[in-house]
Automatic annotation (TrEMBL):
This is Mechanosensitive ion channel MscS domain-containing protein. The chain crosses the membrane at residues 20-41, 69-88. The lineage of its organism: Bacteria, Candidatus Desantisiibacteriota. It is a multi-pass membrane protein. It is found in: Cell membrane. One of its GO terms (molecular function) is mechanosensitive monoatomic ion channel activity. It comes from the Bacteria. Its main location: membrane. It comes from Candidatus Desantisbacteria bacterium CG_4_10_14_0_8_um_filter_48_22. Pfam families: MS_channel_2nd (PF00924). Residues 109-182 form the Mechanosensitive ion channel MscS domain.
Length: 308
């Protein structure tokens, strides 16, 4: 580095001596050249950011802002060093300034680094439904300091939009597990949907085939457009419980419409169960069986069905 800065000073001295122009004009030309280089690289970086962020103007503006600061800081340091500035003094000053800024601006600097990480790797993008720091929401904006989400749920159960905006500091992204409902690439049609389930408790005396038919037909009726896109049918998974059978109806749904779709399917299932004589809902209850042995000539004190 020392040799590089020394060579830079020699180059500047030689350039200033050889150019037959007043010193002021030479410096103006040098500054114009630096500015021209800045404009050219800014255009290139802007195109790269537009491509990487898929047209997100906010990300592009934030990236250009950081590039501008870095470029001019480096340009000023090189100009000072190239025109006779003491490299050791510049190095000590830069190191001290960096230490002070790093200590006092630790969280903001971490936030900027996290923003760069999100911009480059794209673990989530605007419009995705994610869980960050335990907060569920739809991403509205990804800024340098904050990720803005429209909260889902919150004071209400389920996963419907609450209308509240939540600002998540980008600095916490390094410390949090992030869940993305639509992680896979957009060209994969299935990536727009997630697997959901509705649990129905069916009594032991019910007709299995009739119950399964009702559940599958209800899911097909409500999610027929999704089935047509991804070619994946609803299906059943089941398990025994003490007072019936858990029938888990599983189907694919849109993340932002999950609550609405599950409600519509539940409504259809409820009405069809009410109409059917072959299936019944299970509920926790107890049954008692009493055996009475009558003596010779003694009447049974009550009828086993009527209780009289």
């Amino acid at each position: 580095m020392e040799q590089f800065m020394k060579g830079l000073r020699i180059y500047f001295d030689t350039l200033l001596k050889k150019i037959p122009l007043p010193l002021g004009i030479v410096w103006i030309l040098i500054i114009l050249a630096i500015y021209l280089i800045y404009k050219i690289f800014t255009k290139l970086i802007e195109k790269a950011l537009l491509k990487a962020s898929r047209g997100d103007i906010n990300r592009v503006k934030s990236g250009i802002r950081i590039w501008r600061i870095l470029y001019w800081v480096i340009a000023i340091i090189l100009l000072l060093a190239g025109t006779g500035g003491n490299l050791a003094t510049l190095g000590l000053s830069a190191a001290f300034l960096g230490m002070v800024l790093g200590w006092s601006l630790q969280r903001p600097v971490t936030g900027v680094a996290a923003w760069f990480l999100v911009t480059l790797t794209k673990p989530f993008k605007i419009g995705d439904r994610v869980i960050i720091a335990g907060v569920i929401g739809d991403v509205q904006n990804i800024g340098i300091m904050y990720v803005t989400m429209e909260q889902v749920g919150g004071t209400t159960g389920g996963e419907e939009k609450s209308g509240r905006a939540v600002l998540i500091p980008t600095a916490v992204l390094f410390d949090q597990v992030i869940f993305n409902y639509t992680m896979r690439e957009e060209e994969v049609q299935e990536s727009k949907y997630i697997l959901d389930e509705i649990i129905i408790r069916v009594a032991y005396g019910s007709n299995w085939n009739a119950a399964e038919k009702i559940l599958i037909s209800a899911a097909k009726e409500i999610t027929k457009d999704i089935i047509g896109e991804i070619r994946k049918e609803p299906y059943i998974r089941a398990e025994f419980i003490d007072w019936g059978v858990y029938m888990r109806l599983r189907y694919y749904t849109r993340p932002v419409e999950r609550q609405e779709i599950s409600t519509n399917i539940t409504k259809v299932i409820f009405h069809k169960f009410a109409e059917s004589k072959e299936v019944k809902f299970a509920y926790p209850h107890s049954e008692a069986e009493i055996t009475y042995i009558a003596k010779a000539g003694e009447k049974v004190p009550f009828h086993p069905e009527t209780g009289k």
